[in-house]
Automatic annotation (TrEMBL):
Belongs to the peptidyl-alpha-hydroxyglycine alpha-amidating lyase family. GO terms for molecular function: metal ion binding; peptidylamidoglycolate lyase activity. It comes from the Eukaryota. This is peptidylamidoglycolate lyase. Its EC number is 4.3.2.5. Keywords: Calcium, Disulfide bond, Glycoprotein, Lyase, Metal-binding, Repeat, Signal, Zinc. Binds one Zn(2+) ion per subunit.
Amino acid sequence: MDAVGLEEVQVSKEEVGAVVADDRPDVPKAVKDWPHEDLKLGQISGVSVNSAFQPVIFHRADRVFDQYTFNATSHFQHIDKGPITEATVLTLDPHTGKVLGRWGDNIFYMPHGLTIDRHENLWITDVAMHQGFKFKPGELEPTLVFGKKFQPGSDVNRLCMPTSFAIASTGEIFLADGYCNSRVLKYNALGKLLKVIPSKDEFLSLQIPHGITLIEPLDRVCIADRENMRVVCPRAGLYSLHGTKDPPLTIQEPDMGKVYDVSSKGTLIYAVNGPTSSLIPIEGLTIDPQTEKIIDRWSPPEGFGLPHAIAVCPNGSSLYVAEIHPNRIWKFELVAPK
């Protein structure tokens, strides 16, 4: 596996050019009248897609993340309300949007990120609890827990409002942490901390890493660096430490806006931004990290309100965008450019 991984990382410029030429960006086209009926959800903070190509969403029910949610020391202010009593994790039919299954009641306090790996494990972050969780398929008790419940902190054992997970095919875990700590933590498959990004000697500064995705052929972990209004892709170090000191790939343009989330397809990134200024539209972005350019911009005919999360289907046929205002989920088909 290591030899294969190294070969993937150390490609020539000609090979990279061929990959890009063969992987011209598919264009997202909004699917009309999807879902077929109003799902009556709270703020949809997370979305991912399972191996059956079914979107799975993570919503907040009657909870709202606002200026009263945390105090100045990042402690959650509504513990007394208890966990959300409504099911927060919903699996949808990809054709109709009908709810096929639901769980997650009486567990979470303020949902944020949701990622499904290739083994159907669910990786979830809860900003109120200051924790991240790994749930095996069909299980209601987590098999891995990161952080200490309701205890914000910046040491290696505590998190502060973590936002999102990305899971490598090697089993390595990347956790964006988050609103307060502005770092990414890399763990092995058993949850042992391997690295903090950025390291002390690394010329990189994050300001609310809000979403995260992996581009394994390039050995890059790409971060929605929200308040810095960019996407930044340092080396992931999945197959070798060779090149891990290389500078990050950085995509930042004057009208990019605050980037809320990222999801990869091949060597490309699909992203969504959020409210930034009246001069910057809220839209989807297609990004080529190798050229460090935005190569397409897109949105539904009605426009976005406040998109919060994005997920590309494993087979590359579609993507989903979750919004927290209005509280809705969009489906986009990925079609070849004309």
